[in-house]
């Protein structure tokens, strides 16, 4: 019996950039969502991609969640650089197994996805006894997907993918 870890949430960078510091064009790159862990046991989730606004700010995606039964280490949240305010993403939760001493029933918990500044990661998954549950997909920009909860005699279930990054621009007239 095992539960997979949730992926870390992406970082966030906020910066006020004077128009004179902007080029005639600026390249915006939106980080890809972290890939879901495969339904094959032992396959961790993928890391989230890097979101950038020119050379001004960078927000890194979170680390992919650990495969079921592989690690009790939480997936790290992404970092951010270049901002006036750099906010790391929240760590993903690790998967656990609880077995009742009285009844022998097992409850399997897949780790919660890490939060981002744009919202909460996917919720923790729960399975009881021989059932398994797929991980949840990160529903808010930069949030992590949750880990699957599995049982030894159940079919393997995939973890949830994270959510992609975002760039928000606000133009202020002076």
Textual characterization of the structure:
The protein is mainly beta. The protein has no helices and 11 strands. The chain has a 4-stranded antiparallel β-sheet, with no helix packed on it. Strands 8-9-10 form a 3-stranded antiparallel β-sheet, with no helix packed on it. A two-stranded antiparallel ribbon has the order 1-11. A hairpin with a 3-residue loop joins strand 4 and strand 5. The model has no long low-confidence stretch (mean pLDDT about 90).
How much helicity do the residues have? under 10%
Count of helical stretches: 0
The first-to-last residue Cα distance is: 60 Å
Order of helices and strands: EEEEEEEEEEE
Number of strands: 11
Instruction: Evaluate the radius of gyration.
Output: 18 Å
Largest sheet: 4 strands, antiparallel
Average predicted confidence as pLDDT: 89
| Structural class label | mainly beta
Q: How are the strands ordered across the major sheet? A: 3-4-5-6
List unreliable stretches of 5+ residues: none
Q: Any idea what the shape is? A: elongated
Beta-strand content estimate: 15-25%
